[in-house]
Amino acid sequence: MIRIITSLVAVLTITSVQAQASVREVPKLVVGITVDQLRGDYLEFFQSTFSERGFKRLLSEGLVYQNIRFDFPNLDDASAIATIYTGTSPFYHGIVGNKKYIASQKQEVSVFSDPAYLGNYTDDKVSPLALKASTITDELKIASQGYSDVYSFAPQITQALIAAGQKGNAAFWIDDYTGKWASTTYYKNFYWSVDQGNRSGSDFAVKAWGMQWTPLLNISAYNALPYTKSTPSFQHFMGRDKQTYTLAKQTPAVNENVRNSAMTLLTKADLGKRTNPDFLSLTFYAGGFPGVSDYSYEIQDIYARLDREIEKLLDDIDKTVGLKNTLIFITSTGYYTSTEPSISESSENSNSTNNTVNKFYINRCEALLNMYLMAIYGRDGQWVDKFYNGQVYLNRELIKSKGVSLQEIQDKAAEFISEFTGVQEVYTSFQLRHGQWNPVMEYYKNGYTKETSGDLFVELQPGYKIVNEQDASFKEKQVRNNAIISPVIFFGNNIKPARIKRTIRATEIAPTLAYIMRIRSPNAAKDEPLSELR
Which class would CATH give 360-478? Predict the structure, then answer.
C-alpha cells in the first residue's frame, strides 16, 4: 500500500514539474519591431547580401508566419500599426490613416492633431487620444499598475504615438524640420538620454545635414533584380534645406538612428531588469526612395543595411537583458508604395504605339458630381465638399438645412460616380453601416469610422492613375491591388523555431502578446491567440 502511494506521489510530482516546465516564462522585456513596407519576397531575394546574425538568424531561429493580412482598404503605416497594437480594425480603433479630413473645417490635419498639447523639440501639437481602443502597451501599463515602462521610437509621429499608446512613458519621433527626437507634452517622461542625444552635436540632425547615401557593399553584390538599370553605382545627397530630414528618413540612416537611440535608452533605463515586463517599440523603414525605381540598387542596400541593424539590435539585447528573457516580434505594415510609372509612361522603348495613360481626375469628379446634385436638389450651395483619400465628402450642413435624405443623396451620388470611366464600384456609408452583409462590404466597413470617413467609398480599377489638376501639392498615385507578402516573426523567450505556411490576421498579434505576458487583450480585440504560441 505504501509502495502504491509512493508511486502515485512520484507520478503526480513528475506531471506537475512537466506541466510547469511547459509553461513559458513571462518575458522581462518585449521588443516590438514594425518595419514599414517590409516585403517577404525581398527577404528571400536579397539573402546573399545578409549577414549570418541578422534576418537569417530570425528566419532560422524564430517562429515565422509566412504572411499577415489586413482586412480593410487604403492601408498605410498608421492604420496598419494601430491594427497590430489594438488587435482590431479602424472601424473600432479609429485610425484610418496618417491624415484625416475635417469636413467642418475643410482642412486636412494629422490624425493625432491635438492643440491641447505642445511639442518637445517640435512645433507639432499632437496626442494619442485619437485612438478609440486600447493598445497592448496600454493593457500592460494597467496590469502592472504603471510599473512597466513603455517607450517607442519611430521615424514618423503616428508610428510612435500608436506604439506607445495612451498610457506609455513616452513616444519619440524624428521631427521633419529639425531632425531631433521629438515628443509631446501629453507624455510626462522625456527620457534624459534622448534629450542628451539631441544636445550632443553628433546626433542624426547633424549627420543628416548634407549627408550622402552610397552603397554599403560593392555594387556587384546587388544582383537580385535583373531589371536594375546598368548604372555604375548610386549616390544621393540629402542637401541642406527644409527637405533634408524628410529625405533622410527614407534612407537606411534613419534605421541606425532608431536602433541606436532605443538601445541607449534600454541600457540607461534598465529596461527588462525588474519584476514587471517592460515594452520597447521600434519602427524601421524599408520602403523606396523618391525618384528611384522599384527595381534598384537602393532598395537592396536598404535591406542589407537593415539586416546589420537587426544584428546589432539582437546582440545588444542579448548582452543587456538576454534573448531568453526577451520576446521580440517583427511585423510588416503590409503594403508597399510603388515609385514606378504606369506601363504607358514607361514604354519609350516599347514597340507599342498606344501610350495612353488611364487617369482618374478627382477634381473633375468633384465638379461634375456637384453639378449633377445641383440639378436635382437646387443651386443653393456646393453639395460636394471634397474628394479625399478615395472618399467623397458631401456637404452635410447643406443637406441637413435643406431637409434632404442623406441616404437618398448618397445613393444618387454613388449611382452617378459609378458611371465614370475607371470606377469599379462605389459604396455609401449608409450601406456600410446598415446594408446587407457580404465579404466586400465587411472589408470596406472595417476601414470606416463615423467620425472621419466620407459619404462614399470609391473603388478604382487597377492601373488608373489618380490625378488632381487643381492641387500642385497632390501626389499622383497609381492604383495597384497587388498582394504584398508580409511575414511575422516571433523570436526569443525560448520560442521554438518553425515555419508556418499560412496567412494570419493582423488582429491576432495583440491577443497573442497578451497571452504570453498574461494580461488582458486590448479592449476591442476579438481574436484568440495564435495556436502555435499557446
Answer: alpha beta
pLDDT band at 16 (very low <50, low <70, confident <90, very high): very low
Residue 97 Cα to chain centre, angstroms: 9
385 exposed, middle or buried (CB, 10 Å; 0-12, 13-18, 19+)? buried
Residue 306 grid cell? 537593415
- Is residue 525 a contact partner of residue 34, using CB atoms and an 8 Å limit? no
Distances (CA, A) of 522 to 111, 158, 280, 353, 512: 21, 19, 17, 56, 11
At position 299, the amino acid (one-letter code) is I
What's the half-sphere exposure (Cβ side, CA atoms, 13 Å) at 27? 30
Angle ∠(298,330,323) on CA atoms, nearest 5 = 115
Interacting residues of 447 by C-beta distance below 8 A, sequence separation 6+ = 72, 73, 74, 79, 89, 90, 91, 96, 453, 457
Cβ count near 189 (within 10 Å)? 14
CB contact burial 506-524 (16+ within 10 A = b; e otherwise):
bbbbbbbbbbbbebbbbeb
CATH 3.30.1360.150 boundaries in the chain: 360-478
> How confident is the model over 174-206, as pLDDT tens digits?
999 999 999 999 999 999 999 999 999 888 999
The closest alpha carbon to 155, from 32, 285, 1, belongs to 285
Question: pLDDT, tens digit, for every residue of 325-375?
Answer: 999 999 999 999 887 655 545 545 555 555 567 999 999 999 999 999 999
Report d(CA 507, CA 528) in Å as an integer: 9
- Claim: this prediction has a pTM higher than 0.85: yes
Q: Which fold has domain 29-338+482-533?
A: Alkaline Phosphatase, subunit A (3.40.720)
Residues of the chain with CATH 3.40.720.10: 29-338+482-533
